[in-house]
Amino acid sequence: MAGNTRTPLDKLPVTLRDVEAAAATLSGFVKRTNFDHSRTLSDITGAGIWLKFENLQFTATFKERGALNRLSALSADQRKQGVIAASAGNHAQGVAYHAARLAIPATIYVPVGTPTVKIENTRRHGATVVEGGATLEEAASLAKAYGQSRGLTYIHPYDDPLIIAGQGTIALEILSAVPDLDALIVPIGGGGLISGMAVAAKAVKPDIEIIGVQAALYPSMYNVVKAKSLPMRGDTLAEGIAVKAPGAITSEIVRALVDDIVLVTEQDVEHALSLLLTIEKSVTEGAGAAGLAAVLADPARFRGRKLGLVLSGGNIDTRLLSGVLTRQLAREGRLSRLHFDIVDRPGQLAAVVAVLSNAGANVVEVSHQRIFTDLPAKAVVLEIVIETRDRAHLNATIEALRAADIKVEVLG
Hints:
By secondary structure, the protein is of the alpha/beta class. It is built from 17 helices and 14 strands. The strands form three sheets. The chain has a six-stranded mixed beta sheet with strand order 1-2-10-7-8-9. It has a four-stranded parallel beta sheet with strand order 5-4-3-6, with helices on both faces.
């Protein structure tokens, strides 16, 4: 991609000087997050994995970088009148937090269905939150109309040079800490993060590879730069990058500087999110896990290379997180649902449980169904959820049941 329509760095809408100016504006007000090597993830992937923990910002998102840089440029009259923004949650929190700190009234429109944790955190920072529109684009349209009628300054989530420059400060911090990286792998929604980082990184280290990652359900920037027309639909775990229309400014920069964009499946994202929690003990949202998802999905491409990944946010609903972790246990064969058709007479359940116990499987849940079944009246449906160490242990448990002449089916 980069190189086909390459624009000189100093001719782009955002330059290294803009990013450096943003870094000065942010100094002391936005956390310089850790950029640490993960030994375990490196062993798993075969690549050198370095993680930028933007999920540990005060608002648990990188978005406050661009928000503060944009808010700091407002005139006194604009600050007094107030600002308005539209966001799936993270931009909302960044704007709300720094607007409150700067005594700027803020109103935020979020799409219906935005995770509760993001809405409540935004309100906690003092902003007025309005839920409206089924998508981010619809919420943005409502926000712009409302803001124009009341003289509010619209703070765009990504297609603004000051926003882009603010996000680019992440790359300056990364390369000052580890200058010899081979590639940066960055999630893409509207493109503000990867645009800013690409401007800074390519200026500081021209040969570094910049790879963007999008959810396969929302390949908007992928479609733009690769002239594709893949559909965008459905609910993605990576709702923070579920953007149907990337920015004009960001698209120009991505075309010029980003070397490739890859798509990741929902299962890839769930796997990455689970690994980050269990191995790094770090909570990320789906978008924040997208970079690792890309490496896990194509380890051969990245093997032996030194990679910088951005954990862009950590605002995930706890119920959703619980579901993701449980589903991952099931994929690994550590949590399974077993189905039995047994004779309805004393001792049958005990016989099944005895085999499970002897096999070392832990019984988590039991369902004994006599009524809602098509089986004969003297039969019963038994479903048991069990916990095993891994898939090999699950297979051994199934073999033990069948050796005891107990018919069993693994569901799901």
